[in-house]
Design a protein that fits this description.
By secondary structure, the chain is an alpha+beta fold. It is built from five helices and eight strands. It has a domain at 62-173. It has helices at residues 10-13, 17-26, 44-53, 67-76, 152-173, and strands at residues 2-3, 14-15, 34-37, 57-62, 85-90, 95-104, 118-128, 134-143. The strands form two sheets. It has a six-stranded mixed sheet with strand order 3-4-8-7-6-5, sandwiched between helices. A two-stranded antiparallel ribbon has the order 1-2. The longest helix is centred in the last third of the chain and has 22 residues, at 152-173.
């Protein structure tokens, strides 16, 4: 639940993130920019608003809250070949991280989501230097940017940048 300074009805001021995203973005110049969001905000209305009304782009995480979209992307990338890009230069906070990304435009006409220009899957493998413990995560996503606008290396950087901001905000608010 958010209580934010937004002009308008009192019920608009106290609502959830989904209903607050568009009113908050109204006050920001986002034309030509890329807006990242976690799975909660992976919504048709927000995607259409960003692309059609604001001439911006989206980079959304896809999870089970959009079950058909999630299953379609997961199935497509089930038997993936070599990744389109690998970032193995990550060595921060006492851990070694390797990130791999696969991208496709083959789902653009199939996925029931507005303005999709690429779907992607990212694998993150992490090893704690002290304990030697390993972790492995797989994340799925979509973007309205074409491969010419954002290549696999750029998509991976955008995704990492989103989670750096997300994690730092949660740490501060906690």
């Amino acid at each position: 639940m958010a209580s934010l300074p937004v002009a308008g009805a009192e019920e608009l001021k106290r609502t959830n993130e989904i209903k607050m995203a568009i009113p908050l973005l109204e006050a920001i110049d986002i034309q030509g920019k890329q807006v990242t969001a976690d799975a909660l905000l992976t919504q048709h209305k927000l995607a259409d608003y960003l692309v059609r009304k604001r001439q911006a782009h989206y980079h959304f995480t896809v999870k089970a809250n959009q079950s058909k979209l999630f299953q379609d992307i997961k199935l497509f990338f089930q038997d993936r070949p070599q990744p389109d890009f690998v970032d193995d230069a990550c060595c921060d906070h006492g851990r070694i991280e390797i990130r791999k990304i696969w991208t496709t435009t083959q789902l653009n006409g199939y996925l029931n989501f507005p303005h999709v220009a690429q779907a992607f899957v990212i694998e993150r493998q992490c090893t704690d230097k002290k304990s030697g413990e390993h972790s492995h995560e797989t994340a799925y996503g979509i973007t309205s940017q074409s491969p010419q606008q954002d290549d696999p290396q750029g998509l991976l950087a955008t995704n990492r940048g989103h989670w750096c901001i997300e994690n730092s905000c949660h740490f501060i608010l906690a």
